[in-house]
Amino acid sequence: MSEPKPLAVITGASSGIGAAFARALAGRGYDLALVARRQDRLQRLADELNNHFHAKCTLLEADLTHETELRSVEEFLAGAPNLQLLVNNAGFGSLGRFYEAPVESQDAMHRLHIMATMRLTHAALQNLTARDQGAIINVASVAAYVPRPGSTSYYATKAWINCFTECLYLELKTAGSRVRIQSLCPGFTMTEFHDVLGIERNFISSAWWMPAEDVVEASLRGLEKGKLVVVPGWRYKLLVALTRLMPRGVLHFALTRGPASVRRERKPSK
Ligand SMILES: NC(=O)c1ccc[n+]([C@@H]2O[C@H](COP(=O)([O-])OP(=O)(O)OC[C@H]3O[C@@H](n4cnc5c(N)ncnc54)[C@H](OP(=O)(O)O)[C@@H]3O)[C@@H](O)[C@H]2O)c1
């Protein structure tokens, strides 16, 4: 009997960066488990990956902010004998002042970006560390480095992902484990992310937008090299480096000036 193919589990695979990870990994010989709420999207992607790459796809329809649905994905991760990679990618943005936004959407963001990332990483590590192989990619953002006003929970939860991933990197290294872990920090990426927020892409020059495929290639190249943090694109590498060097007071001055210091989500048209 032939060896089973390595398995990659991708959350938020129904669009954007998650779908680009699925295509890139299917092309590298992985079978996939695709996680998201929109089953029709996952089915279309699975058909495409099966036709092009003969990739076997398991569809896991789950709202990761719901306890029972999150638990079913945890159980899948803990029990998959050929698990090689988990990509914690599902996420969404928010706009407007924290204290003016409904607490329910802030709560959902913390459940998705923090609780789901923590729980799925824990389940995957039970499996991967026992076999001393495989990897986890946690999708954070350049937002993790720049504490802006107007999207508090987004910036704070992405900073948590970076810190969580760095601590795990050190734990795995000091334990002598071969399991790798990466924090992927993209800048503006052409996906449905900003459509969901209801904002046009022309608020920033086209030079800053990156295709999801380039972001994913940078991540997978970084994973091969064992890089802890991957910031795709030279502009964003420079931005992150400058932000880290800048005195906090100067950064705060720059971030609290100008008309766009706090953006708001577009109200749905009646
Ligand atoms: N686009 C950017 O500019 C950018 C920049 C930096 C970081 N990021 C990060 O990249 C990641 C992917 O975003 P994207 O840009 O690819 O946006 P996207 O195209 O809107 O994709 C978001 C994905 O997350 C899934 N998702 C959202 N809520 C979910 C929930 N409650 N349960 C399960 N899945 C859920 C969505 O699937 P369903 O709706 O089908 O559930 C979708 O597949 C996010 O973590 C985001 O923060 C994006």
Brief write-up:
48% of the residues lie in helices and 14% in strands.
What does this entry look like structurally?
By secondary structure, the protein is of the alpha/beta class. The chain has one domain (7-255): 3-Layer(aba) Sandwich (Rossmann fold). It contains nine helices and nine strands. It has helices spanning 16-27, 39-53, 67-79, 103-131, 152-174, 193-197, 212-224, 234-245, 248-255, and strands at 7-11, 31-36, 57-61, 83-88, 135-139, 180-184, 189-190, 210-211, 229-230. The protein has a seven-stranded parallel β-sheet, with helices on both faces. A two-stranded parallel ribbon has the order 7-8. β5, α5 and β6 form a beta-alpha-beta unit. α3 runs parallel beside α4. The longest helix has 29 residues, at 103-131. The protein binds NADP nicotinamide-adenine-dinucleotide phosphate. Residues 11-18, 36-38, 41, 62-65, 89-92, 112, 139, 141, 186, 188-189, 191-193, 196 line the site of NADP nicotinamide-adenine-dinucleotide phosphate (NAP). Residues 11-18, 36-38, 41, 62-65, 89-92, 112, 139, 141, 186, 188-189, 191-193, 196 line the site of NADP nicotinamide-adenine-dinucleotide phosphate.
Q: How far is it from the N-terminal to the C-terminal residue, by CA?
A: 59 Å
Q: What ligand species are in this complex? A: NADP nicotinamide-adenine-dinucleotide phosphate
**Structural class, from secondary structure content?**
alpha/beta
**Adjacency order of strands in the biggest sheet:** 3-2-1-4-5-6-9
Question: At the third CATH level, what is the topology name?
Answer: Rossmann fold
Fraction of residues in helix: 40-55%
The run of helices and strands is EHEHEHEHEHEEHEHEHH
